[in-house]
Prior knowledge:
This protein has helices spanning about 80-90, 100-110, 150-160, 190, and strands at about 10, 30-40, 40-50, 60-65, 115-120, 125-135, 140-145. By secondary structure, the protein is α+β, with helices and mostly antiparallel strands. The chain has 2 domains: about 10-70, no CATH class; about 80-165, no CATH class. Strands 1-7-6-5 form a 4-stranded antiparallel β-sheet, with helices on one face. It has a 3-stranded antiparallel β-sheet with strand order 3-2-4, with no helix packed on it.
Amino acid sequence: MGRENVDNWHVKKCSPACEVCQKEFQDRENLYSSLFFEGGEYLRKDVCESCWNKESAALSSWKTTFIVPPPPAEEAVKKENAESLLRKLLAKENDEDLNAVFILTVMLERKKLLVERDTQTSEDGRKLRIYEHKKTGETFMVIDPELKLAELEQVQDEVVVLLGGQPRNAVEEPESEEPAGEAQEPTDKDVNV
Ligand SMILES: [Zn+2]
């Protein structure tokens, strides 16, 4: 495998050719992708349908379709979106970004850009979710921080800010909604004029 495929361990591109017979994959050709753990790292191997062997010692395998990779994204300044932010954070490999990475992954899964293929337990006991990018065929390996519901909301707000939006509770203007079923206490502003 070429080193250019090893940007970071989280994102693994599809090989251009079958690992076994070396035949180049054609656009829309069915193939099988497998993940192996060898020499302390995760490796992805892609084989054509005729070379596929169900008995392989892979951690996970799935059938997929080869997609001719799209041309590289333009270098020009473009608006940050969930996908570009996810790639950026994954490349940094900071543990502090794990929560944001996971939220972005879930966002892209809802948009059907990523599809979950498997879950694994990493060597250090963390839950690893394995996704496939539907447009590029890349494998994304993301640690699931197993957030609690309350944490989830907070991280979602952080991600919205990273994407250039406003968190739900930071809006300065008065809320139009009436508080339900509870008389409002006079505020300081009303009392000390
Ligand atoms: Zn083959």
